[in-house]
C-alpha cells in the first residue's frame, strides 16, 4: 500500500473479488482469514457494501455478491439479458411457453429477461422485474436446490400454482457462472409440465451459462 491509496477501499474491493470467485458465498470467519484482518473489520466492510447493494447475506450468514454490482455499469445488466436472449427465444418457441432468466436478489428471485412465444394462442404474461420469494416458484426452487447441492435432483424444479393459479413452471439453475446465482425456466398454463420440458430447460440453462462466462 502506498500513501496515495486507501486501505479500507482496497479491503472492500478485495472482499468483492473474493465473493465473485465463489459460487456459495463466504462467512465472516472465512473472509477474515483470507483478508488477514479481524472479524470486526470484516463486519464493517460487509455492512458498508450491503448499504450499496454490492453484497448481500443469506439466512445462514454467508456473504455473496449483490446485484448492485450489476448496476455499477449501466450496460452490464442489458448485456446479461442480451447474452441470454438467443437461448430464451429458442426455448420459448420450442416449448410454446414464456421463457425467463431469473437471478437472485437478496431473498427474492428477480426476472431479468423474458421471452414470450410467437405462435401460441395464449401464454402466461411474465414481465422483467417480476419478483417472488426464492422458496416459491420453479425459478427460485431450482436456485435453492443448486445452492444446497442436492445430488438426487433431476437437475430442474417443477411447480404448479405457486405463483399463479393454473400455471405450472419448470426451471434449471445456472451452473458455473462466477458471481451470479440464477435459473432459466418456462411458465405455462397447464396442470402438469410435459415430460420433455425439464430436460429442455436444463439444456437452455447450460446455453445461457456458456454465454455469460
Count of the domains: 2
SSE ordering: HHHEEHHEEEHEEEH
User: Can you tell me the CATH topology of the largest domain?
Assistant: Beta-Lactamase
Estimate the strand proportion. 15-25%
Major beta sheet, specifics? 6 strands, antiparallel
Assigned CATH superfamily of the largest domain = GAF domain
GO molecular function: DNA binding; DNA-binding transcription factor activity
InterPro entries: ArsR-like_HTH, GAF-like_dom_sf, HTH_MetabolicPath_Reg, Tscrpt_reg_IclR_C, Tscrpt_reg_IclR_N, WH-like_DNA-bd_sf, WH_DNA-bd_sf
Keywords: DNA-binding, Transcription, Transcription regulation
Organism: Streptomyces himastatinicus ATCC 53653
Q: Could you write a compact summary of the structure shown?
A:
With 213 residues, the chain is α+β, with helices and mostly antiparallel strands. The chain has 7 helices and 8 strands. 37% of the residues are buried.
What can you tell me about this protein's structure?
Helix 2 (28-35) packs across helix 3 (39-51) and helix 5 packs antiparallel against helix 7. Helix content is 41%, strand content 21%. The protein is built from 7 helices and 8 strands. It folds into 2 domains: 5-64, Winged helix-like DNA-binding domain superfamily/Winged helix DNA-binding domain (Arc Repressor Mutant, subunit A, Orthogonal Bundle); 72-210, Beta-Lactamase, CATH 3.30.450. Strand 6 (157-160) and strand 7 form a beta hairpin. The radius of gyration is 19 Å and the shape is elongated. It has a 6-stranded antiparallel sheet. It is of the alpha+beta class and 213 residues long.
Amino acid at each position: 500500500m502506498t500513501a496515495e491509496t486507501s486501505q479500507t477501499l482496497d479491503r472492500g474491493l478485495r472482499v468483492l473479488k473474493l465473493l465473485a470467485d465463489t459460487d456459495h458465498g463466504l462467512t465472516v470467519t472465512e473472509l477474515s482469514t483470507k483478508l488477514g484482518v479481524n472479524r470486526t473489520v470484516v463486519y464493517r466492510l460487509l455492512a458498508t457494501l450491503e448499504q450499496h447493494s454490492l453484497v448481500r447475506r443469506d439466512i445462514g450468514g454467508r456473504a455473496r455478491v449483490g446485484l448492485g454490482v450489476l448496476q455499477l455499469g449501466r450496460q452490464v445488466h442489458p448485456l446479461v439479458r442480451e447474452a441470454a436472449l438467443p437461448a430464451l427465444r429458442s426455448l420459448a418457441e420450442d416449448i410454446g411457453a414464456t421463457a425467463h432468466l431469473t437471478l437472485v436478489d437478496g431473498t427474492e428471485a428477480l426476472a431479468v429477461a423474458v421471452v414470450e412465444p410467437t405462435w401460441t394462442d395464449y401464454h402466461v404474461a411474465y414481465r422483467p422485474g417480476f419478483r417472488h420469494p426464492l422458496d416459491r416458484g420453479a425459478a427460485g426452487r431450482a436456485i435453492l436446490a443448486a445452492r444446497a447441492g442436492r445430488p438426487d435432483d433431476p437437475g430442474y424444479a417443477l411447480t404448479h400454482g405457486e405463483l399463479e393459479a393454473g400455471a405450472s413452471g419448470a426451471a434449471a439453475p445456472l451452473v458455473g457462472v462466477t458471481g451470479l446465482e440464477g435459473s432459466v425456466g418456462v411458465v405455462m398454463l397447464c396442470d402438469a409440465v410435459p415430460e420433455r420440458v425439464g430436460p429442455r430447460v436444463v439444456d437452455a440453462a447450460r446455453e445461457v451459462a456458456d454465454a455469460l462466462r
